[in-house]
Amino acid sequence: DNIIVKDAGILVARLLKNSQDPVPGQDNGVTMLAVGTGATGAVLSPDAPTIYQRALNTELARKGFSATQFRDILGNAVAYPTNIVDYTCTFASGEAVGAINEMGLMHTYSLNTGVTNLISPALGGYDATTDVTNKDLLLNYSTMGPITKSSGAILTVTWRITA
Q1: Nearest CA-CA partner of 104 in 25, 50, 44
Q2: Do the Cβ atoms of 58 and 38 come closer than 8 Å?
Q3: Single pTM value for the model
Q4: Any idea what DSSP says for residue 108?
Q5: Cβ neighbours of residue 79 under 8 Å, at least 6 residues apart?
Q6: Nearest-CA neighbor of 103 among 148, 137, 136, 61?
Q7: How many helices (H) and strands (E) does the chain have?
Q8: Secondary structure class of 48 (helix, strand, coil)
Q9: How far is CA 35 from the centre of its chain?
Q10: Nearest CA to 65 among 32, 18, 40?
């Protein structure tokens, strides 16, 4: 299961106000996939995500997309905008090594994967008055039973959004 979190609404409102906001000169949509090891609840069946999640609980790695693709209603790749888009990200050997049990699509303030500007706390005590200027925004969040990625493995994730 995945959920569009409340901070996604902040990004949409900012883009509707001004397409150069929140980061002038940057692609202001979904910029990275983050994976983590900190989903709450039972190890094999973590708690369902909530709309109040603001960041991954324990982020392991984040990375930009190797491909983004619009799809038509039948799932065919198309060259024109639709309400269905796939985001594909590959974590190479040595990247994102661990027992991954949470993932999220993010709009990051920096395109440098080593720079994080997280909103704290990740979960609990959601405060709608928090100034999110210059912060990473979690847009879509998912928890799952652990996917164990060893240092020699390659993990490719394709995340489909249908709006």
Answers
A1: 50
A2: yes
A3: 0.92
A4: -
A5: 70
A6: 61
A7: 1, 9
A8: coil
A9: 8
A10: 32
Six-digit token string for 52? 């109040």
Q: Which residue is listed with tokens 């973590």?
A: 46
Task: Take residue 49 and report the two structure tokens written for it.
Answer: 């995500």
Distance CA 163, CA 108 (A): 21
Number of residues written out for the chain:
163
pLDDT 10s digit of each residue in the chain, 163 long?
Answer: 789 999 999 998 888 887 666 676 566 789 999 999 999 999 999 999 999 999 999 999 999 999 999 999 999 999 999 999 999 999 999 999 999 999 999 999 999 999 999 998 888 789 999 999 889 999 999 999 999 999 999 999 999 999 8
CA 75 to chain centroid, in Å, comes to 22
